[in-house]
Structures are given as structure tokens and as C-alpha cells.
Amino acid sequence: MLIRKLFKFESAHIVRNCTSRRCSRSLHGHSYKIEVLLEAYALDHGQMVYDFGLLKGTVGDFIDGFDHAVTF
Fold first, then answer.
1. Domain boundaries, the chain
2. Are 30 and 71 spatial neighbours (Cβ–Cβ below 8 Å)?
């Protein structure tokens, strides 16, 4: 069985070493999507492939580091 969960977030960055001054000094943002696929050949004790609540916590903690942030 295969399940999937799509996460979306926004983040910005500055394009370093760009040839144009505008690009190399301006913030540039993107909308990102991360899709997590989980596959199991048997269900767990709760009859699930994986608990989405746990998945949202684990992946959510990672995404929170990038969501509405400026990366360098």
C-alpha cells in the first residue's frame, strides 16, 4: 500500500554571484511543494501505513525551518 502527503511552504533567497546587480541584491521568493510517499507491505497495529499526525509533526518541524524564511 502506498500513501502520500503534500506539504506546501513559501521561502525566499538572494541569488548570489548573479551577473545582474538587481538579481544579486534582491530577495527572490518561491512557493515550494514537498511530497512524501510512504509504502508498506503490511499495516501497523492501528491498521495504518503510518499515522499522518506523526508525519505532519516530523516533516512539519523540518519545513518550519524554511517556511516564510530567507535562506542564504
1. 2-71
2. no
* Residue found under cell 541569488: 15
Percent of the chain with pLDDT over 70: 100
What is 2-71's CATH superfamily? 6-pyruvoyl tetrahydropterin synthase/QueD (3.30.479.10)
Q: Contact 15/24 with Cβ under 8 angstroms? A: yes
Q: What DSSP assignment string belongs to 21-34?
A: HHHHHSEEEEEEEE
pLDDT digits (tens, 9 = 90+) for 50-71: 988 898 888 989 999 999 998 8
Strands 69-71 and 2-14: parallel
